[in-house]
Amino acid sequence: MHRRTLSTALAVALTFGSVALTTGVAGTAMADDQRDLGIVSFGDIVVDGVHKRVFVSDPVSDRVVATDYRGNFVAEVSNLRGVKGLELSADSRTLYAAVPDDLGDTSDAIAVIDAATVTVSAQYPTGDVNPQSVALAGGRLWFGYGTPGTGNIGSVDLTDPEHKVTLDGDAAKPWSAAPLLDAAPGSGSLVAGLPGLAWTELGVYDVSSGTATATARKTVAGSELRDLSVTPDGGQVVVAAQAPSHHVTYKTSDLTADRTYTSAQGSANAVAFAPDGTVAAGNDTYFGQGLHVYRPGRTASVRDYDLVNGGSTGRLAAAGLGWAPDRSRLFAVTAGQDNSYDLRVLNNPTKAVTSVSVTAPAKGDRTKKLTVKGKVTSRVALPAGTKLTITRKDLDNPGGRKIGTATVAANGTFSFTNSPPAGGKVTYVLAYAGDADHLASSGSDTVDVSRSATSIRLSNNKKTYDYAKSVKFTAHLGKTYKNRKVEIWADPYGSDRPNKLVKSGTVNRNGDFSATYKLTRDTRLTARFTGDARYAPKTVASTIYTKVKVSTSISRQYKNKNVYGQTYAYFHQATVPLFTTSMTAYPHREQRLQIEYFYEGTWYDGGSQYFGLDSSGISRVELGGTHDIGYRFRIRSSYLDGASGDNVNTTTHGAWKYFIFTR
């Protein structure tokens, strides 16, 4: 039996295409985003919740870039030599930027940028002190400044019309480099940390009077400080340093260790607080989960992010985290090895991921009750009594129909029963809408629900027809529910011809549907009923055999004469006859030329040989050798299924052609 590779592949695809997933994947109401920032270095990041912008400094390119909340470029401020630290005023009107001007002249300054127009409105010269970081506290703008070996804290009096700059804010001069600064919004306390050295020094200052009075100073465990952030209430500071690799919290009252945020991979390099105390803690790992979100007062993360394997240009940049004030987004800057930087926009970062798993029976009977079970899992448990929406998808409702709700128990499990009215693949989708603490999610499972069997017949099975014959095929469909349509397909033998729909339509009142098809090869005709909600699909096939078109002509004879009841071609003994065969063309096809001779009333086999056809289906053969006079001969050309170089047609014999030799 001939079998087409395409049909087999299609059958496999359909089989695997019907396999249903049994576990839902958690979804989010808003997809995370990612944009190339177009910068070549990174200094600091702040988020403006009023204008819905993100500001990023690029020290090498001497500019501050502003993007929207999706990371799309909005504007930039240029010619800010070596710009580093950024701070936004409480009313989001003013952005302050530390401009150290690495050329070493006296043009170091604090740049004042209008956050709405993204233009420089003023500059507060600091002298040649190399300002690096800025923080607002006690009604002043404080800045950490210095070079390796020396550093201190300076301030700008924002209430003074002249914006007086004061240096050497810490008379003890304890800093051997420009310290990192941070402060709780509206507080009178300032926290400083020494970055990038083999040890970590912290200092806390009371700045409520306009001067910096040290209230705590300590060398703490760890090295290579990269970032620090003060809690919104000012009571603690979280330190991100290369060692220890986790994030450590210290009390600002006396700098004693308070709690630890343990990370799975890499070294701590970024930390940022949302206004409600939610903390984002990042690591510089090249693999695994490098960013974790913790709710206030908790040390178990509510969300984890794998930034590198999530398609980033690289790992999290040091100090590269910033919160939208409403906590709707967390912004992360990632750095590639080719000096490229992306802004990762992480939506709903404070909401715990939920997952809905659904388990239904593999099979069920139509209209019979079945039980569907499942479980909702999350790092933050759902309240008992939470409702999941149940949607049933079937052949009558392929888009889905809501059929009720399932109640989640205290342990996260749920169960419900249903009697599916339609057969076939029935999918139950359980959807959780999410809430203030959880992301929405859904899960599904599919049941193969039984359907009744119908009958279908197709005419002309195993019949043989001449080449190019147009044949009428009739399918007869038995009892069904709603669907009365039938498809008739033709699959010609040979890998160069695809299975093709001949005709589709609705059967008549007798259940019959017909289509006419022109046969040129052996063909497998298929009648298909695709099924409906109560009756299963049904397919029946008829194999039709088709002859080739073949003819043979004789030439070079000196006459034709009707004798012995046939037309004979007469050749002189010295003539070489030419037999020309025309046959339906097919690649590598051969015709078999057979010769017989007549002796004492019987035709005897005189031998046969296969000859190739050209691309037009023509074969020319000469009969050489010594020719016997007076004997009657005949030849015919044949196509033999499987022996003539292919198997796309059925065996076909051409007509006999008769000839005789004379002197």
In short:
This protein is mainly β. Helix content is 2%, strand content 51%. A hairpin with a 2-residue loop joins strand 49 (590-599) and strand 50 (602-612).
Fold and architecture overview:
This is Ig-like domain repeat protein. Keywords: Signal. Residues 1-31 form the signal peptide. The chain has 6 domains: 16-26 and 353-449, Macroglobulin (MG2) domain (Immunoglobulin-like), CATH 2.60.40; 29-126, Neuraminidase (6 Propeller), CATH 2.120.10.30; 129-220; 223-249 and 263-344, Methylamine Dehydrogenase, Chain H; 452-546, Sandwich (Immunoglobulin-like), CATH 2.60.40; 550-662, Sandwich (Immunoglobulin-like), CATH 2.60.40. Mean pLDDT is 92; it is low at 1-29. Helices cover 2% and strands 51% of the residues. It has 663 residues and is mainly beta. The longest helix is centred in the N-terminal third of the chain and has 13 residues, at 5-17. It starts with a helix and ends with a strand. It has 1 helix and 54 strands. Strands 46, 47, 49, 50, 52, 53 and 54 form a 7-stranded mixed sheet that branches.
Element layout with pairings:
Blueprint: H1 5-17, E1 33-36, E2 45-48, E3 53-58, E4 63-68, E5 73-77, E6 86-88, E7 94-99, E8 109-114, E9 119-125, E10 131-137, E11 140-147, E12 150-157, E13 165-166, E14 180-182, E15 189-193, E16 200-206, E17 213-220, E18 223-230, E19 236-243, E20 247-251, E21 257-261, E22 268-273, E23 279-283, E24 291-294, E25 303-305, E26 315-323, E27 329-335, E28 341-347, E29 354-359, E30 363-364, E31 370-378, E32 387-393, E33 401-407, E34 413-418, E35 424-432, E36 441-449, E37 456-458, E38 464-465, E39 469-477, E40 485-492, E41 500-506, E42 512-519, E43 523-529, E44 538-546, E45 550-555, E46 559-563, E47 566-572, E48 578-583, E49 590-599, E50 602-612, E51 618-622, E52 632-639, E53 652-653, E54 657-662
Parallel strand pairs: 30-36, 38-44, 47-54
Antiparallel strand pairs: 1-28, 2-3, 3-4, 4-5, 6-7, 7-8, 8-9, 10-11, 11-12, 12-13, 14-15, 15-16, 16-17, 18-19, 19-20, 20-21, 22-23, 23-24, 24-25, 26-27, 27-28, 29-31, 31-34, 32-33, 32-35, 35-36, 37-39, 39-42, 40-41, 40-43, 43-44, 45-48, 46-47, 48-51, 49-50, 49-52, 52-53, 52-54
